[in-house]
Amino acid sequence: MKRSVLVFFIMLFMSAMHAQTLPALKEKNTGKNTAMFCHYVDENGKEHWVETVKNLSNKQISKIQKQLLFLDYTIVETGVLDVQTKRELALFNKENGLGNYPYVLPETQSVLKAKYKEKKKAVKK
Q: Signal sequence span per UniProt (predicted)?
């Protein structure tokens, strides 16, 4: 009896060691900010791992909200990555070919900055 229980637990432990687990969070250093990969399931049920910018300050989020507002997105500047901000980020990302992700992607920051500068320059003329 004791031997069979021991063998069972050894087998259980061995199978657990070889199990395929998908980590909830993977991080990498991208220099300026730290990026992380978030799990996202799209409207078709397809799963994606999306690289996002991690550790955005309230000031950075306010800046993103201000840029989105200037680009005629429906958003209130709160400094918080809230539901309305995620909704507008998903819309911005989708409209700019970055996917329908409610996150700040590294590409989101650069495209948003370029669009903001472009419109600001056009308004000044």
A: 1-19
- What SS3 state is found at 53? strand
Q: What is the DSSP letter of 49?
A: E
Number of domains within the chain: 1
Q: For position 43, what pLDDT does the model report?
A: 79
Q: How many residues does the chain have?
A: 125
Inside any domain, residue 18: no
The whole-angstrom separation of Cα 117 and Cα 123 is: 10
CA dihedral of residues 117, 118, 120, 124 (deg, nearest 10): 130
pLDDT tens for 73-114 read: 999 999 999 999 999 999 999 999 999 899 999 999 999 999
In a domain? residue 106: yes
Q: Are strands 47-54 and 26-29 parallel, antiparallel or unpaired?
A: unpaired
